[in-house]
From TrEMBL:
It is found in: Cytoplasm. Its main location: cytoplasm. Residues 21-182 form the N-acetyltransferase domain. It catalyses: a 2-arylethylamine + acetyl-CoA = an N-acetyl-2-arylethylamine + CoA + H(+). Transmembrane segments: none annotated. Pathway: Aromatic compound metabolism; melatonin biosynthesis; melatonin from serotonin: step 1/2. PROSITE patterns: GNAT (PS51186). Pfam families: Acetyltransf_1. GO terms for biological process: circadian rhythm; melatonin biosynthetic process; response to light stimulus. It comes from Apteryx australis. This is Serotonin N-acetyltransferase. Belongs to the acetyltransferase family. AANAT subfamily. It comes from the Eukaryota. Keywords: Acyltransferase, Biological rhythms, Cytoplasm, Melatonin biosynthesis, Phosphoprotein, Transferase.
Length: 183
């Protein structure tokens, strides 16, 4: 009698068919999961979210190709949402508009689920996102606004500071940053 090989023994069989790790564009069906991660990540820091649930749905319907989610075993653990912008610098309008003829991607939000933070996932996701943007021929650069404490993080990821952002949210002021995608 042959004993079962270790590869086929019942204890070693895969229990699911979902990929261990997957990056894909987000869809409107992902909006609630996105909002839950975003709300937890931002409410404790700033008291507000960059995007509310209806705005997340809005951007995922208009420009899903400008989003990227990181899924572990089918569960969203981190994401980026962007939209196109057509001016040199961000303005208040950039918070809610998608300008289809724009050559800049405005990164509205990057967030990592709390149990996956401090593992380098944010910088890995941002690197993957910039690679994804390089595949879109109309995109020339990525722009974002962040609080001062995040400037070193984005600088390590290849962004350069453009100076204070015109946009403010309540008492919060931001630094505007950009990264060349091509050209």
């Amino acid at each position: 009698v042959r004993s079962p090989s270790p590869r086929n023994s019942p204890g070693r069989q895969r229990r699911h068919t979902l990929p261990a790790s997957e990056f894909r564009c987000l869809s409107p069906e992902d909006a609630v999961s996105v909002f839950e991660i975003e709300r937890e990540a931002f409410i404790s820091v700033s008291g507000d979210c960059p995007l509310h649930l209806d705005e997340i749905r809005h951007f995922l319907n208009l420009c899903p190709e400008l989003s990227l989610g990181w899924f572990e075993e089918g569960r969203l653990v981190a994401f980026v949402i962007g939209s196109l912008w057509d001016e040199d610098r961000l303005s208040q309008a950039a918070l809610t508009l998608h300008r289809p003829r724009g050559a800049a991607v405005h990164i509205h939000v990057l967030a990592v689920h709390r149990t996956f933070r401090q593992q380098g996932k944010g910088s890995i996701l941002l690197w993957r996102y910039l690679q994804h943007l390089r595949c879109l021929p109309f995109v020339r650069r990525a722009v974002l606004m962040c609080e001062d404490f995040l400037v070193p993080f984005y600088a390590k990821c290849g962004f350069e500071a453009l100076g204070p952002c015109e946009v403010t949210v309540g008492a919060l002021a931001f630094t505007e940053m950009q990264c060349a995608v091509r050209g």
